[in-house]
Fold this protein.
Amino acid sequence: MELTRTNYSSGAPLEEKSGYSRMIKVGPFIYIGGTTAVLPDGTIHGEGSPYEQTKYVLEKQVNLLGKAGSKKEEVIKVKVYMTDMGYAPEVAKAYSEIFREIKPLCTFVGTPMLNRPTQLVEIEMDAIIGAAVEGRGI
């Protein structure tokens, strides 16, 4: 079986300069690379607030899914990196506002630092088109 690959950019200058894609779709599989709360002008959204940064990044990623023909209900895995595990309650609050009913796999990982000191959260996301939740399982 041959699958078509499509690369997507968010328009961030570093993507082209470094040679990476923000999101890749291969057949029905969608992978969004680590995304932080960098605004188009290069500033950080929600500086100092893990809640605001998480909410912004998740909304940005859900919008990206739409470009690939997917939706948040098809997200199967989210990995959140945070520079202080003490941020977990605020990160979980923002996460639950988007994914409470969908319940994708989710992992919180502590990391000593991200690209900039003002970046508190970085998120990766995977989705499969056609994998929307139909039942609750066990």
Observations:
- The longest strand covers residues 75-82.
- Helices lie at 13-18, 50-67, 88-99.
